[in-house]
Amino acid sequence: MKQPENIMIQTIPEHELWENLKISNDFIFAKVMRNPELCKGILERLLDVRIERITYPEEQKTIAIRKDSKSIRLDVYLKDGKGTVYNVEIQTTDSRNLPKRTRYYQGMIDLNELEKGADYMELPQSYVIFICTFDAFCAGRWRYTFRNVCVEEPGLELNDGTTKIFYNTKGTTGRIRWDAKKILNYMESNAPEDDFTNKLAREVQKVKENKEWKVEYMTLLMREREKFIEGKAEGKAEGKAGGIIDTLLDLGYNNDRILDTLEKKLHISRTQAENYLKSFYEGTL
């Protein structure tokens, strides 16, 4: 039986070949973060905090609150010894929707953590962290930290226990720890500069020597490419839907009239029309 990589080898771009993967690849990153010592070290350096222990790293956790709701797959989802939740994501493509994604991720994490009937006070402190290989906000900073503050009183924080942080591997300004810069530099250049990033590099190599993980990666890559090919035809319909919605909104149509028009023009179901409209409002259509 042929291995998946033998089937696809001719169609995979150079940077996606298993032997060329870097820590900035989300699959590799998730595997590296399975090492509690390295996971703890990355968080401590990036956040400038002391973490007693990582209670459980959980790679690529899927959260689906209802069968009919949009599920999310989180690259790295874990807790520290105090119960603080950390969701850490690697992002290499600027899709322009990261702020909305952090909002959605935060809401799903809260719903996942809060058991039915539990008091809101039991919601843990949480961090949604994106490590980006681009500058998401074009201000040159290494780090952008967001918390909810009062518009009328800028110094007044809501203190709802949530923090969203975007790191920029191409940063040039702002104050962060020197060893945090080393981590971001390593993720950008793939060249370790100190003892800790050398440990990360060795762990990356260890991951890439794991044959089972190689097959797992190639299988996932095959599935993604199959979905991409299948989605090309769907993409044409999505493009038409986006144009129709945009035009009808300019004409002052309400949502019901827009949905009726989508059904008739595209010959689709009500559910599909609702999905298109939801995606349009979310900025993903």
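[next item in queue]
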Amino acid sequence: MNKTKVFKGLRIFCILLLILAVLVGVTSVRNVILSARDEKLVEDAYGEYYTTPEGERINYTFYDNGVEDLAVILPGYGCSSAHFEFDTLAKRLSDRYDILIVEPLGVGLSDGTTRERSAENYCVELHGLMASLGYDRYTLIGHSIAGIYALKYCNMYENEVEAFIGIDASVPRQIDIDNTFTQPDVQYKINRALKYTLVDTGIYRILTEVSFDSVLEQIPTIRDDDKDTMLALYTTDQMNDTQLREGKKMADNMRDCYDMTFPKSVKVLYILSKDNCDQIPEWEQLHSDIVEKCNGEVKIVDGGHYLHLTNLDGLLKAIEG
């Protein structure tokens, strides 16, 4: 009797496993077909390009608001399209800045690269873009990991950066936080696993399609005729090889900038997510430690890590002072 139950149990398990394999096979094939379609749909869909000396194209979008000051918006890690993600923020800042939204290599419509994703390479690439456009004075606005790149950039090109505004931005010494899930190496392993189990199988595409309306609600300035392009970018290019290499290099980049602070000539404003401050006790102090050594301040705003999506009004109020 026991053997019969075991046999029936194994048979049911095998049937379920077979059904799962068939479903994953279907979603994987669907993902390959739709990804090929999406690549054609998004080709040169927006912005302009700067070509690096190595021949790789960086996409950027310029909002000419007729304002004297320029702000350069840099996305966080794993961004699918900075052009779309920061569209509402850029438009809400139109009375304060001309805006340049930059998609670093591996993001949105920019090319991928096999070059090392070091903070220094990132900064050299960004500076090449700024020089090609003829800008030598500007403010950097960076979300999440862009805080590390901005810190490095300000130390490399001190005379060009007027100010840095960090949107729940990363700092080098967060690598010391005793929290497994905030460690860059752990995040890299998780993202790599998610790429193979969710992205490559097409499951991530389905999850994104189902939840896409809620994403659009957070970026109300997106035009109807851009929604298909935005969805294509959000489902096709997630955790690409360039982004994974960036994730693998993240801990090294934090160590490289570990003892850095901003030059006193750069005004610094860290705007932190209250959710992160509540969940990570060290979060506020790590940022305060940096601004104590430079010309800066820290403000805390209600909302999650993506403050430009979860509490844009609060973020703008903090920026405007």
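[queue empty]
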